[in-house]
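Per reviewer request, we include the raw input and output of the structure prediction for the construct analysed in the revised manuscript.
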Amino acid sequence: MNSAINKAREALQNADAILMGASNGLSISEGYNIFADNESFNEIFGDLKRKHGLRCILDGCFHHYSTEADRREFSDRLVKTWVEDYTPSEVMINLREIIGNKPYFILTTNADEHLEAAGFSPDRVWEIEGTFRQLRDGVTPENKQKELNDFLNKYGNKNLVILELGIGSQNHIIKLPLMQLTLQEPNATYITLNLPQEIYIPMEIASKSIALPGDIAETLRELNDRNF
């Protein structure tokens, strides 16, 4: 087992709290890709793709449909297949076990509610851009800045692990604030999981960071010491 995995495991085990950031790479590791015109998209949405010229889930979410009924048909099917029918994957089971009983807070833009379905408390998950269900129903996403501030006030200056899962190297919504927080927090450890080409750690926080490039599903399997 490589030294980076061991180092990350040790940091997670010694953490007083874990602040997690999750983006599309985490969902993709489960097999849910909002950008892909793949077999899954065609199996679930093939008729709507042909009817409306949809190219992927993301396109379907923001497509200008001719009627409200057409928009609702896509949204209902998305919520049914990606949210309501979802069963937590090995990825989410491993992630839940890695966090264990540690205090945590999660920032995500994934919208699919998979984290909540896997057992993470909705009170501690901030779906920053809202969920597919909220988008369908026209519900304004809840702002949980206060909850985040309370979490950081409580665990600032302690052993805070900042765990980043599948966030693109140029992401400014979650990644940039997490890197800035790592710089500010004296005892923070920044652990980033992503494909090799998407791993980015600024020099200013390199000494406080652990990069785990590769398939996120496999990395989480290795990090979960219950698998060994």
